[in-house]
């Protein structure tokens, strides 16, 4: 499968601090790729390196088969980019701003701009400086999508948007994928990651800690178990079982988490009289939080 983005041992240092630490990953052409991590993890640094807004300390990046530095002009024509906080000349009207950016990209049909503006409820006659952050972000979305680029690079694209507009954005991302475009987006909104991404990369302290589909990552999550017995049981007996962690006992109720198969726990519990059993997996928020705070290993 053709690769839209390929990073090889990409490193960016800011003095004694590393923004990226030997990051290697591939983004397939035509997929929606979620890029997650806590604040300061290196998400925006990665995006700026992809666009040659900053230069790497070492390692390499190829975007749409091009070198972001040597082929910057060609690459930017084929890319749509939205920064986390879209900033342009506030004196211009939104429509004037978009028309100017459209000319820079070789021209965009006027109906494409007005159509996106209608979907996102953007007043094209309003001056940029009069717009709220959310409405400025809508203008940013229009300029990123309007020329139907091969690659969309979106840094926290729904920042400041209300839930209805967030859903419109998700629809636009789905349409871009159906059109064969590649979408690389960082996000803190886990519901949108689950809704539209094909794969997810999680970085922490500039290093990759997980890369897979959301479903596959969820399959690795811990199982939370609560067992009620007819009488109190020895918690230590269960704490020694393989994969069983965080064991606590309160009277006749034992709670724990299980990594992997719960077979050993079930067999141990069967030695006693079980009166109740409840088990569920971590929700998405807990799953990603575990990657953010747990051991830094892919």
TrEMBL record:
SMART domains the record matches: AAA (SM00382)
The keyword Transport belongs to this UniProt entry's keyword annotation: yes
Keywords of the record: ATP-binding, Nucleotide-binding, Transport
Keyword ATP-binding: yes
InterPro entries assigned to the protein according to its UniProt record, in alphabetical order: AAA+_ATPase (IPR003593), ABC_transporter-like_ATP-bd (IPR003439), ABC_transporter-like_CS (IPR017871), ABC_Transporter_VariousFunc (IPR051782), P-loop_NTPase (IPR027417)
Annotated ABC transporter domain residues: 5-230
Organism superkingdom: Bacteria
Coiled-coil residue spans: none
One GO molecular-function entry: ATP binding
Protein name: ABC transporter ATP-binding protein
Organism: Actinomadura darangshiensis
